[in-house]
Amino acid sequence: MNPLHSNSAFVRSLTRTLATLPAYQTGAALADAPPAFTEVGVRYSHYSEDDIDASSVIFGATSRYDIDITQLWIEAPVGASWSVALDVQNDYQTGASPWFVGTDQNGQPGVIMSGASIQDNRVEVGVATRYFWADGNAGLNVSHSDEDDYEALSMAFDASWNTAGNTRTWTTSVSNSRDKVNPTQGVIPVFVTNEALDTQSGYFGVSQILSRTAIVRVGLNYTYSDGYLSDPYKLNDQRPQSHERIALSTGYRHFLIDANASVQFDYRYYADSWGVDSHTVELGWAQHFERTTLTPYFRYYSQREADFFQVVADLNEPHFADDYRLSSYGAMTVGARWAINLGDWTLEIEGERYWSDANWGLYDGDPAPALVDFWRGTIAIMWRFD
Amino acid sequence: MGGPATVVITPPSGRSAQTAPLLDKLQSLLRTLERRYSRYLADSLISTINTRAGSGDFTRLDLESETLLEVADQLWHSSGGLFDITSGVLRKAWRFDATHIPVDVSQLASLQDKVGWEKVERTAQGIHLPVKGMEIDLGGLVKEYAADCAVSLLRDHGVTSGLIELAGDVATIGCQPSGAPWQVGIRAPQGGDPLGGIALSSAAAATSGNYARTLRFKGRTYGHLLNPHTGWPVEGPTSVTVIGENCLSAGAVSTIACLQSPQAAMTWLSDAGLPWLMIDREAVCSGPLAAEMGLSLT
């Protein structure tokens, strides 16, 4: 054990304060190290989709999905160089979703909804361990997700290391997931049993401290999936058996000393083998107060439709889908995060509102009638102790 | 910063020609910190803040000065108000270099109105001292901070073996070129030979003492550290040395120890969890470093 590593609350708190100064951002004192504390956290999110416009519905309920997400986690240091973590998440979703898009007596497209009695519960358990050395750390994460109709086992490895006097951090990760799809028969007929899906993903990125007040990050992600990729709960959904995705993500943070705030800018470009590509831009302002940080943010998203998307699916094509998530549209999100530090306790509250509209996008395409708007609220409490 | 400085470095291999420019940079760094934080220089940030006391004008702070004041705030809270960077004005009532009537008690009472970190206004606009004549003094932190900055500068220039001493506070980089840890002598409060040496590698040792300036008043000897609550000198340990990962943390722990009674200081030092040596007013040594150095223990 390092005899200079103090567990006293005073020294730890002082170390945290000093960490903002460049003189304390290099060297052994702030080298990568396991967390000094055990952290226990609980997070609850509620996601609620607005009712679909009745004029867009040919048949069925107008209410849509509500999802309750509860997450519990614990992360603890083990010895001088390791940490372990356990993460359990439960999602409970209920409501209705679009089953397919048809045409009404006037020839106008409209949605046939699934009925409002869908209920599903998903439980995911993840365990992770991480090893720390002077200039970096590496972690292994295994998780298992189970619900009535879907089971997934995934494994991920990631590593990050610092160079250039700890001003540059390189990060890489690879992951693999094996999923089994066994849709349940419910209020809508399902014609799929025992399907499988394998997914591999890799990421490589770098972040660079540009100055005492600025940091930039860029990363590239590639994901390949092979297997059953259609949505079994949609009537007219037959997607290709493989899906390649690539995403370039960038971020910039600038600390404004006088304002005691950070400007946050993120951009992500995404393209896939189905013809979808998208741009996401997010602007945030993190205002720091004595014990709290309030971060309002705005996000804009624009997507080009998949090659096989049609408002009303053409079943004569080899691949087809009428899923609004594959259409051309634009979306805006307005939200705010509020983090409150109360000594060993941290409280985080977040709320956001999302609107989507076919006319807000950068790309042409026929408007899907079931585009979604939703609210999402999250509250989390974390406790750190020795 | 009103004290001697010693720097010992082994230049990075093949870069001995860069030693002189590096030492120039180091000197420039220390001068910059002095110009910003010295209360003796009329155009320093600290003097600006002090001059504006009671005027209603706030002084803007940057990340560094804001952080150092945040550290001062933490020390004030953790010491129950004994560490108070506004307490310097109390010195005006005490004459540690005088041989007669060392304290002007009447002045002490009026000076205490100008003391109290809790009175200081800190907002997004900066800092303002609300009472005319109020002063802050970061001298208790800046010397240690300067040592840490010096270490950071030298490390950034590839130095892997070095020692900086700023008026008794020591920060080291790595070991000596031979591979042996740096040996730092602990001064005996009564003078004479050092009490012994402590081994440091990539660590810092800070010493806070109450013996450098003393006075005798009504038959008792008082050190120069003053209790901001009473205005009178504290009757704490004579000297406390603490080893830490950086000089500022070590100095913070040792300074707060010196402001308390010897008994409370021992509890504080044990709770801080860093190696320490305390010498009390009877010159008795205690703490893990005393045991390591083979000194007499309580």
- Name of the CATH superfamily of the domain at 181-292 in chain B: ApbE-like domains
Q: Let me know the largest β-sheet of chain B.
A: 7 strands, antiparallel
Arithmetic mean pLDDT of chain A: 89
Beta-strand residue percentage of chain A = over 45%
Query: Uncertain segments of chain B of ≥5 residues (pLDDT<50)?
Result: none
Task: State the helicity of chain B in percent bands.
Answer: 25-40%
Strand order of the largest sheet of chain B: 1-4-5-8-11-12-13
Low-confidence stretches of chain A: 27-31
What proportion of the residues of chain A is helical, as a percent range? under 10%
CATH class of the domain at 181-292 in chain B: Alpha Beta
Give the end-to-end Cα distance of chain B, rounded to a whole number of Å: 35 Å
**Can you tell me the CATH architecture of the domain at 181-292 in chain B?**
Roll
**Which protein chains make the most extensive interface, counting residues with beta carbons within 8 Å of the other chain's beta carbons?**
A-B, 30 and 33 residues
Structural class of chain B: alpha+beta
Integer tally of domains of chain A: 1
Rg of chain B is 20 Å
Mean pLDDT of chain B: 86
